[in-house]
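We include this case.
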Amino acid sequence: MSKKLPKVPVVIVGMGWAGGIIASELTKAGVKVVGLERGKGRSTSDYYMAHDELRYALRYEMMQDLSKETVTFRNNEKMRALPMRTYGSFLLGDGLGGAGSHWNGQYGRFLPYDFEIRSKTIERYGEKKIPKGMTIQDWGITYDELEPYFDKYEKMAGISGEAEQNPMVGKRSNPFPTPPMKVTPGMKMFMDAAKKLNYHPYVIPSANLSEMYKNPDGIERAACQYCAFCERFGCEYGAKADPVVTVIPVAEKTGNLDLRTHSNVTKILHDGKKATGVVYVNTITGEEIEQPADLVVMTSYVLNNVRLLLTSKLGKPYDPASGKGVIGKNYAYQVNSGKAVGFFDDKEFNTFMGAGALGAEISDFNGDNFDHSNLNFLHGAGIRFTQTGARPIATNPVPKGTPSWGKDFKQQSLKYANSTLTLASQGASLPWQHHYLDLDPTYKDAYGTPLLRITFDWEDQDRELNKYLAERAGEIMKEMNPTKMEVSKEMKSYNITPYQSTHNTGGVIMGADPSTSAVNSYLQMWDAENVFVVGASAFAHNGGYNPTATVGALSYRAAEGILKYIKQGGSLV
């Protein structure tokens, strides 16, 4: 039997970026909040001298234990879904800060086109341009409406970026709060080559601080040391924006946050119209606890947000046969296998140094920044060179045809260890009626709850986009004059085994119509007005940038909506 606690005003499920931002905003406004995090607590002291590639990058120290809870996957409904037993395609974070602690810090606002993708596509090309079965839809909010919240996130995180407005990205109301990161020789080569082709390169906006910074909440952080241990690692300097060193301390300082780690939420309680609280398990003692609340905010990772709603029977589950229902709809990933690799016999680049968001990019082929009239795909991708740090175990670039062992392999490995540059595309994944999330009928987690099932594969849309962008990357690499060059542009079926990106989106999508979306523009559920579901689960499709910037902006808007709801109640739109 569950232990029942006294009722609280707000309970937040998951303390990563979304949960941390909402906790900070609510507690500053005087609202009492319980924050539940199923993993352990963290601080910068946990990472002092922890540059252990084997422990963190290859044995996934900061990730969820897949032996207790995982997902199942299949490419289509004719296949039997099987559990993901080892990490590959994406990484599920665990612990305070969530993916916000182990991310790289690469920052890019989704484009104005993204938020009105269906309307803008039809306006420019006509409705026939949208393939049958592709379920793109507008988000119920515009870029201009969301822009102030992007700005607020950037000031909180101290995003480093160029002062000059790039013409290929959404307009900013203010400059970035800190200057861009250093430009390495590899970045300069890429940017010079892109300019020769009349593109518009820029230094990637970064959540790795370029200089000391004090944010509007009074949080002071040190500058990045370019140590190359960002992705899959916590930052020992606090230079990488992370909920644990930015928003969560602000919430704790107010005295209004009751932060409970090792608290795994297993159910949202509700009466069919409103939530009444949550049930969680203390993962150390095994005790089950009921926490009643006036308002429930779901801020866990994309896949867990969807799974909790489905297992709690809150919201209408998506039916791929009819296209009706909303929970589990429009799952999307990201198209990023197109790349150009250059091997330079006469140059070394010190690529062992770097930072998670150190790099340069062009957005000339992202969104609808180029004419799609004669192309067999919609949207696009950014093309980027990033110098995130070539760590020794995972990095071993050699030209094709090199033996996989022996003397030649060793010689080529040593020769090109710091003489290889890669231009990668990161493209939009658009939704289809037959791509979705639901509960697996066979497999369960350690608590006996059904696992979440992913049904997803690459489409011709993705293959065409990938091929086109890989060719553009190859053209830029050719201008960089490598000794040898390889372009990867072919895509087979989606394979969950190799790592690709932890950029899963959708499943609890936002919109203006309750029949086609699960939440409104404040991320308030249409079917339960006192439940807000915040995170990349709200994305109606995936774009060409990393999702964190847009998650951060939506979180600040959701926090504003929650405060309005506490005062007035009812639907906010």
Summary: The domain at 3-568 is CATH 3.50.50.60 (FAD/NAD(P)-binding domain). The CA atoms of residues 339 and 488 lie 5 Å apart. The chain has a mean pLDDT of 97.
